[in-house]
Amino acid sequence: MRKPPEGYAWSRFGQPEYTDWLDESLSWKHTCYIGDWSFLWQHRITGPDALTMLGDITVNSFASFEIGQSKHAIHTNKDGKVIHEGVLTRFGHDDFMLHGRGGFWAAHHLPQTPLCQPWVRRSASAG
User: What predicted TM-score, i.e. pTM, was given to this entire model?
Assistant: First the structure.
């Protein structure tokens, strides 16, 4: 394990493990990563238009997004500027969970998506 850098700002998330953020960021491309994301906000989105709405606000392709898979989702506005990011998990054909602050951006778009069910939020501070 490495010693945290001087002034390490993310003590809320614990000590850095093994290497650093660069290795973690590239792990999805080269191998995989396992993490406990239970401390993040969770937003469940269901309904026949859920995937379409998520596709409209996310740069990721969902062409091969199988049930049981998770993807790193990068959310943008209509001009392509990054708004938020998070982890998106597909539980069923029309059933998704966004982990992280990206769910707030999705919630902003739900009123314009009539066939999506209301979202449920689990606060990051809840146990």
Answer: 0.66
